[in-house]
């Protein structure tokens, strides 16, 4: 950044993802989720630096040149279901024209063949064929979402990356969108769903990764995370307890500036379990980065106590 300042937008993010599996990456806005997605697609700004490896179906993404990214990665190895699909679609072209162009580019179909293939591509994402001649501004939020999903599926990419796919949708539409994404995952794709919508994550995720201040602080199975034992990291527990259907209690304080992270645990100033050891940054061990994680037994006892109190 200007003045030689560095922002550690994402550090130490490590995970794998199998075909047919959905990993939800959750955390507050600004924690680094979308930066991680941009890094995978080679869409970071020119002054960003990346290190490490990110391999999809044998292709290394980090450090790949623009030619490789354009011709083999975007749309082909990694399909993007974007945030705000209405803004992602080209406003002056019909949905059908955009699907046809994507088909020609990604599958090499002729102009003539692309027309009938566009109907099939739309159907895969439950986009009605009789709406293909509509412009993006003529679509509801749900239909724009389906159009964007149809575009993301055309290249049959083994990894779908959905960046806040349910933002701005009402709950019914959130559920429908999440279910559709799950259906495409069950067809043999891997899905990385970046979201701050924990209800959507609970609906479809197999595993959950929680990000805080640029780091993954917990990575665990969705059943345990949302179930009786709950998460082990204090921040992850705070996120869940903030939901209206749970305690509806906000995590106190604000996240630190990514350009000015503390030496120790970045969550320490907001954490009611913080102790002396937390002045040293905790390593990510056994699925959690915390010196004093909640043990599953203690979590179960707490939730039983809550039930009795209720
Ligand atoms: S390392 Fe310490 S401050 Fe950080 S989350 Fe764990 S207990 Fe809280």
From TrEMBL:
GO terms for molecular function: ABC-type nickel transporter activity; ATP binding; ATP hydrolysis activity. Its EC number is 7.2.2.11. It is found in: Cell membrane. It is an enzyme of class 7 (translocase). Signal peptide: none annotated. One of its GO terms (cellular component) is plasma membrane. Residues 1-238 form the ABC transporter domain. It is a peripheral membrane protein. It catalyses: Ni(2+)(out) + ATP + H2O = Ni(2+)(in) + ADP + phosphate + H(+). Keywords: ATP-binding, Cell membrane, Ion transport, Membrane, Nickel, Nickel transport, Nucleotide-binding, Translocase, Transport. It comes from the Bacteria. InterPro entries: AAA+_ATPase, ABC_Ni/Peptide_Import, ABC_transporter-like_ATP-bd, Oligopep_ABC_C, P-loop_NTPase. One of its GO terms (biological process) is peptide transport. Pfam families: ABC_tran, oligo_HPY. NCBIfam families: oligo_HPY (TIGR01727). The complex is composed of two ATP-binding proteins (NikD and NikE), two transmembrane proteins (NikB and NikC) and a solute-binding protein (NikA). Belongs to the ABC transporter superfamily. This is Nickel import system ATP-binding protein NikD. It comes from Streptomyces tsukubensis (strain DSM 42081 / NBRC 108919 / NRRL 18488 / 9993). The lineage of its organism: Bacteria, Bacillati, Actinomycetota, Actinomycetes, Kitasatosporales.
């Amino acid at each position: 950044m200007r003045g030689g300042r560095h922002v550690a937008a994402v550090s130490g993010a490590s995970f794998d993802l199998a075909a047919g599996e959905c990993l939800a990456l959750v955390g507050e806005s600004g924690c680094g989720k979308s930066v991680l997605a941009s890094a995978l697609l080679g869409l970071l700004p020119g002054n960003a630096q990346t290190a490490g490896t990110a391999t999809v179906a044998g292709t290394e993404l980090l450090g790949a040149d623009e030619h490789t990214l354009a011709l083999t990665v975007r749309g082909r190895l990694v399909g993007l279901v974007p945030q705000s699909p209405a803004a992602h679609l080209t406003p002056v072209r019909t949905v059908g024209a955009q699907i046809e162009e994507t088909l020609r580019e990604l599958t090499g179909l002729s102009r003539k063949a692309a027309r009938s293939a566009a109907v099939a591509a739309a159907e895969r994402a439950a986009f009605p064929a009789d709406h293909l001649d509509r412009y993006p501004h003529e679509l509801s939020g749900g239909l724009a979402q389906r159009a964007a999903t149809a575009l993301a599926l055309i290249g049959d990419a083994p990894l779908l990356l959905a960046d806040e796919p349910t933002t701005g949708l009402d709950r019914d539409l959130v559920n429908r969108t999440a279910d559709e994404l799950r259906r495409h995952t069950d067809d043999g794709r891997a899905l990385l769903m970046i979201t701050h919508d924990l209800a959507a994550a609970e609906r479809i995720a197999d595993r959950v990764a929680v990000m805080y201040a640029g780091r993954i602080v917990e990575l665990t199975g969705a059943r345990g995370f949302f179930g009786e034992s709950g998460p082990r990291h204090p921040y992850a527990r705070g996120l869940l307890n903030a939901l209206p259907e749970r305690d509806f209690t906000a995590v106190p304080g604000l996240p630190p500036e990514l350009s000015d992270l503390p030496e120790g645990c970045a969550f320490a100033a907001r954490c009611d379990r913080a102790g002396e050891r937390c002045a040293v940054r905790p390593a990510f061990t056994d699925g959690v980065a915390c010196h004093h994680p909640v043990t599953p037994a203690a979590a179960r006892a707490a939730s039983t106590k809550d039930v009795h109190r209720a």
